[in-house]
Amino acid sequence: MNEQTLKRIAEALERLSPPAAPPTDLSSFPAYHWNGTGLAAVHDFKPLPLELIVGVDRQKAELFENCRRHASGAAAHDVLLWGARGMGKSSLVKAIHGKVAGDFPGLKLVEIQREDLASIGRCLNLMRGRPERFVLFCDDLSFSHDDVHYKSLKAV
Predict the structure, then answer these.
(1) Cβ neighbours of residue 140 under 8 Å, at least 6 residues apart?
(2) Average pLDDT per run of 10 along the chain, which is 156 residues long?
C-alpha cells in the first residue's frame, strides 16, 4: 500500500467517525443527562418543591441529610430507593437535589439510563477532579436473570 492509499483510508475513517463533542460546561446547569458518550445539560430541569412530597418523611429526611453531607464534602452513602412504579422515587431525588443545590450550587444531578451503565466509567472520568459534586441517578434500575448491565454498576 502506498502513502496516498493510506491517506485516503484515514480520511474515510475520519468521515465515518464524527468528531468528539466539545466538553460540556458543567457549571452552567443543575442537571445533566449521560447519553453513553457525553453529558448533555437538562435545560428545563424543574424539580417539585420538596414540601409537596408527603408520606415518606423518614426517607425524605435521611436522603436530604445524606445529599447535604455529600454536597458539603462530608462522607455520604450510596442510596437505593425501591418501591412500586409511580411512588415518587424520582421526584423525591430531584426535589431533594433542587433543595440542597439552593445552598450548594456546585451540586449537580446526572441521570444515567440503565442501557448506558456499560459506559459509566467514561462518565465518572469526565467528573473526576472537578470542583462540582455529583449525584448520579439511575431511574428504573431493574435487571432480568440473564441481564449483564448490572456488572458495570457492580464494578463502580
Answers:
(1) 114
(2) 87 75 82 93 95 94 97 92 89 96 96 89 91 91 67 61
Q: Which residues contact 42 (CB under 8 A, 6 or more apart)?
A: 29, 30, 31, 32, 33, 111
d(CA 136, CA 70): 12
Please provide the distance, in angstroms rounded to a whole number, between the alpha carbons at the two ends of the chain. 44
Characterise 63 by phi-psi region: left (phi > 0), alpha (psi -120 to 50), beta (else).
alpha
pTM beyond 0.90: the answer is no
Q: State the Rg of the chain over Cα.
A: 19
Largest interatomic CA distance in the chain: 72
CB 32, CB 42: distance < 8 Å: yes
Q: Determine the Cα–Cα distance for residues 105 and 108; give it in Å rounded to an integer.
A: 8
